[in-house]
Amino acid sequence: MTKKQRALEVIERLKKEYPDAGCTLDYDQAWKLLVSVRLAAQCTDARVNVVVEGLYEKYPDVEALADADVDDIEAIVRPCGLGRSKARDISACMKILRDEYGGKVPDDFDALLKLPGVGRKSANLIMGDVFGKPAIVTDTHCIRLVNRIGLVDGLKEPKKVEMALWKIIPPEEGSDFCHRLVYHGRDVCTARTKPYCDKCCLADICKKNGV
Fold it and tell me: Where among 84, 102, 129 does a domain terminate?
């Protein structure tokens, strides 16, 4: 089985296992996903979803958040950890959206990368979820699982994993595939316990099992 054949089989099986998998960050506007993605660094999505409720109640749009004092933002987002740097990035981001993009999030990958605190993972998430464009989000679940399954060989650096996956994952499948890896990584192919291979829909094609 080639990597591409394995990838296509994994995609189909995960579709059946997690048909409704999507982004686990709550948002109803693009700029809110941008904020949440920054807050999610070294923090759970569940906690971010709680914290942003207070943030958006006080600052309901891009303009309000751009005008907000960084100290006030930090006071609200502190429970997500790294409060100072996250508040600074969010403030700077909102100012750029207000001043350069008319309050909208750009739908260009390179433009997203230029925003403060936005790396390839965040930019891909926004491109895929907000704009429906080809995207591969190499978060910790993705990196762990594609190595275990055998879609990449010993790659840990997110950009290298992303580039390797682009070669074997159909572009239109990338975004949903990565969301499904998150669900599978949390429920079955776990990081902090021994993976539950006995209930894994990929067990018979997983390289970890010598296949």
Answer: 129
Sign of CA dihedral 39, 20, 137, 104: negative
Q: Are residues 106 and 189 in the same domain?
A: no
For residue range 45-103, list pLDDT tens digits in order.
999 999 999 999 999 999 999 999 999 999 999 999 999 999 999 999 999 999 999 99
- What pLDDT, in 10s, does the model give residues 93-130? 999 999 999 999 999 999 999 999 999 999 999 999 99
Q: SS3 for the chain, per residue?
A: CCHHHHHHHHHHHHHHHCCCCCCCCCCCCHHHHHHHHHHCCCCCHHHHHHHHHHHHHHCCCHHHHHHCCHHHHHHHHHHHCCHHHHHHHHHHHHHHHHHHCCCCCCCCHHHHHCCCCCCHHHHHHHHHHCCCCCCCCCCHHHHHHHHHHCCCCCCCCHHHHHHHHHCCCCHHHHHHHHHHHHHHHHHCCCCCCCCCHHHCCCHHHCHHHCC
Task: Check whether residue 124 and residue 36 sit in a common domain.
Answer: yes
pTM of the model: 0.94
Domain boundary among 129, 162, 190: 129
Which residue range is the domain that position 108 belongs to?
A: 30-129
Number of domains making up the chain? 2
Q: Which residues are catalytic?
A: 121, 139
Dist CA 160 CA 127 (whole Å): 19
C-alpha separations of 122 from 10, 64, 129 in Å: 24, 23, 11
